[in-house]
C-alpha cells in the first residue's frame, strides 16, 4: 500500500535553493531574514510572483510555524504591491504540495498571480521576456518600499 505521508526528500540543489545560495540569477521583488520573493520566470499571468521561505521545506508538511507566518506576511506585501502596480483587485494565491498536485520545484513556495483562477495561463510552460520581468520586479519592489 502507498504511504500517503511519504514525500520527496529536500534536494539542496533544487533551483530555489540555488537562488537562496546566490548561485543563479533571479528578479528580486522583496527579501527579509526569513523570506524571498521574486518573479516567476514562466508566469501564468503578467506579474506572477513566487514567495519562498529561507527554510529547507519541500512542501507545507515541512514548513515551520515561524516561516509560515513570515511567508504569509511577505505574500501580503507582494499582493498589495501587485494590486497597486497592475491596478486590479483580483490576485490568485496558489500553492502545490507534491508532484501529484503538479508541484515541479520541491522547495515550498506560494504563487501570487494577478489573474482570476478562471483565466490562468498554463503552469510553468512559457518563459517571459527577462527585461519585462526585471521592470516588473523593480515596480513591485518600489511599491513595497513606499
Ligand atoms: P510549482 O510547479 O508549484 O513547483 O511551481 C514552480 C514554479 O517555479 C513555476 O511556476 C515555474 O515557472 C517557476 N520557476 C521555475 N524555474 C524558475 C526560475 N529559474 N526562476 C523563477 N521561477 C522559476
Written account of the structure:
The chain is globular, with a radius of gyration of 15 Å. The protein is of the alpha+beta class. The protein is built from three helices and five strands. A hairpin with a 3-residue loop joins strand 1 and strand 2 (35-39). It has one domain (15-141): 2-Layer Sandwich (HIT family, subunit A), CATH 3.30.428. It has helices at residues 15-20, 65-86, 130-145, and strands at residues 28-31, 35-39, 49-53, 92-94, 110-113. The longest helix is centred in the middle third of the chain and has 22 residues, at 65-86. Strands 1-2-3-5-4 form a five-stranded antiparallel beta sheet. The mean pLDDT is 95. Helix 2 (65-86) crosses helix 3 (130-145). Helices cover 30% and strands 14% of the residues. Bound molecules: adenosine monophosphate (AMP). Residues 15, 26, 40-42, 50, 96, 102-105, 124 line the site of adenosine monophosphate.
Shape estimate: globular
Give the CATH H-level superfamily.
Answer: HIT-like
Radius of gyration: 15 Å
How would a crystallographer describe the biggest sheet?
A: 5 strands, antiparallel
> How would you describe the oligomerization state of the chains in this entry?
single chain
**Number of separate structural domains:** 1
Instruction: Write down the CATH topology.
Output: HIT family, subunit A
Mean pLDDT: 95
N→C terminal distance: 53 Å
Strand order of the largest sheet: 1-2-3-5-4
Give the second-level CATH assignment, the architecture.
2-Layer Sandwich
Number of helical runs? 3
Please report the total strand number as a whole number: 5
**What low-confidence regions span 5 or more consecutive residues with pLDDT below 50?**
none
Tell me the β content.
5-15%
Ligand kinds = adenosine monophosphate
Order of helices and strands: HEEEHEEH
Helix content: 25-40%
| CATH class membership | Alpha Beta
Structural class: alpha+beta
